[in-house]
Amino acid sequence: MTADADTDTDTVDPTNTAGTASWAPGDQILWRYRGNATDRVHICRPVTVVQDTADLLAVWVAPGTACVRPLLADGTPVHQEPLATRYTKPRTTGVSPWAGTGVLKLARPGEPWSVWLFWDRDWRFKNWYVNLEEPLARWTGGVDSEDHFLDIAVYPDRSWQWKDEDEFAQAQQAGLMSAGQAERVRAAGRAAVERIESWEAPFAAGWEAWRPDPAWPVPALPDDWDRSPARIRA
């Protein structure tokens, strides 16, 4: 199954288990994020499936992959805009290659975060990154989520630290996240910290030694990367 599946049969599955067939290693899909407080997709990364089971979806973002990312309407990269106006200025999207080394992304069904693994160019492992987000919703062309700003960096010595707390606070001030949602995100973060401190999977699962199949091509970004899958009917 590839990322340019027939749009007439696209379906969304919030449970991450039914309504779409499992993907095989080497399949190419889309890993997407909606903008906060909108249904519009503003981040899209073509990825290669490493593993897709009832317990785990693992995908690889290859170096050089053409990815969609948000930009300010004048073309300024979002991270270059001062925090006070970062979430209030008009935005658009642009396409650019994934810079640096690739990233392995791991997500368990129903969990409000995914775990990303980073390496140096010589494959020396750097760290895990817990990206707090909506549980992935599956559809025939890939998975969709919404980023929740707050993150956690986890290091090989098992230490960890909160990341982007300033962006998390500013997003609330800008009206992109209610107080109730913010508290649910904090609760998800605390649950992730419990997983880290007890050193459970995926941190103790040995993924640091994983390497991509050199025969895998870099996935292409389809023209309809922002298509809207049809909701599954009850």
Automatic annotation (TrEMBL):
One Pfam family linked to the record: DUF402
Positions with biased composition (Acidic residues): 1-11
Keyword hit for Hydrolase: yes
Domain DUF402: start-end pairs: 80-200
Superkingdom of origin organism: Bacteria
Hydrolase keyword on record: yes
Region: Disordered, residue numbers: 1-20
InterPro entries (alphabetical): DUF402, FomD-like_sf, Ntdp-like
Keywords associated with the record: Hydrolase
Protein name: DUF402 domain-containing protein
Organism, scientific name: Streptomyces aureoversilis
